[in-house]
Every structure is written in C-alpha cells, then in structure tokens.
Amino acid sequence: MKLILCVPVYNEAEIIQNTILVLKSTLARLPGEVLWEIVIADNGSTDDTHNKVTSILSKEIRFLSIGEKGKGIAIRKTAELCRGDIFGFIDADLPANPDSIHKMVQIITQNQADIAIGLRLMDAKLVHRGFF
After folding, report:
1. Long-range contacts: 110-116, Cβ < 8 Å, 24+?
2. Which residues contact 55 (CB under 8 A, 6 or more apart)?
3. What is the pLDDT of residue 123?
4. Please, which residues have CB within 8 angstroms of residue 65's CB and are 6 or more apart in sequence?
5. Dihedrals φ, ψ of 88, to 5°?
6. Are the C-beta atoms of residues 21 and 61 closer than 8 Å to each other?
7. FRET label pair with 83: which of 34, 52, 62, 74, CA 20 to 30 Å apart?
8. Around 66, how many Cα atoms within 13 Å sit in the side-chain half-sphere?
9. 116 and 31 in contact (C-beta within 8 Å)?
10. pLDDT at 124 over 90
11. Alpha carbon 83 to its chain's center
12. At a CB cut-off of 8 Å and minimum separation 6, what does 67 contact?
C-alpha cells in the first residue's frame, strides 16, 4: 500500500524545509506496510522554494514543477502523475495537524471508508480567519 501526500506550494521558501521534516517524521511512524512519498507541487514560485526543496530531496521526497497556476491544478496534476493507493494533500503551512494522517490512513487501509477528510475546526479565539 502506498500513500502519495501532495503539498501544493507557491513561494514557501521560508517554511518548506521545516514542513518536509515534520511530514517525514509523521509519515515515518506509519505502519511498515504503508509506503509513502511526499510530492512538493510547485505552482510557479518566484522565490527560493525550488532550491530549498531540492537541497533535501530523498527517495521519499519528489519535486514537481506545475506549469499552470492554481492550488487545485497543482493537486490534480500531482494525482494524475503519481501512482499510489491512497492520495492526500496538505497545505505547506500545516494548518491541519499532520498526526491526523495516521487515523485517516488507518480508516482507509482497514476498508472502513473510501475517503477520509480532515477538518481543522478550532476555537475561533485561537485562529483569526478573514472573510475570504
């Protein structure tokens, strides 16, 4: 069983290396029968995102340059180009707790569901979200 985890990025040079390290650490704790790959889907960054990612590439980390603009396009193109049994995505700033990935993978691998969706419901006092 293989998990493809897409991280769509646009100008994330300041945080991308830490994001990758956190995700690698999280996914390394998945059960041994679950292989995984983190795919950084760059959507035309103009900062140093590409260099930051390529400096820490490994067999579990892949960098894709997506020519078209848009987060949705980056996710869709990654899903089209990468082969795995489970596909997921998470934003580069990790607004959802990556530890939730374990539970979602478990639900899917145990055939309890075909789809698992993480929600980031938080106390409004902790997070300010604008209208848009």
Report:
1. none
2. 17
3. 53
4. 42, 50
5. -145, 170
6. no
7. 52
8. 25
9. no
10. no
11. 15
12. 44
In the numeric block, which tokens belong to residue 67? 């020519």
The tokens for 88 are 């997921």
Place of tokens 């493809």: 4
Q: Which residue carries 């604008």 as its tokens?
A: 130
Which residue type does 90 have?
I
How big is the chain, counted in residues?
132
3-state secondary structure the chain: CEEEEEEEECCCCCCHHHHHHHHHHHHCCCCCCCEEEEEEEECCCCCCHHHHHHCCCECCEEEEECCCCCHHHHHHHHHHHCCCCEEEECCCCCCCCCCHHHHHHHHHHCCCCCCCCCCCCCCCCCCCCCCC
Tokens of 127: 């997070």
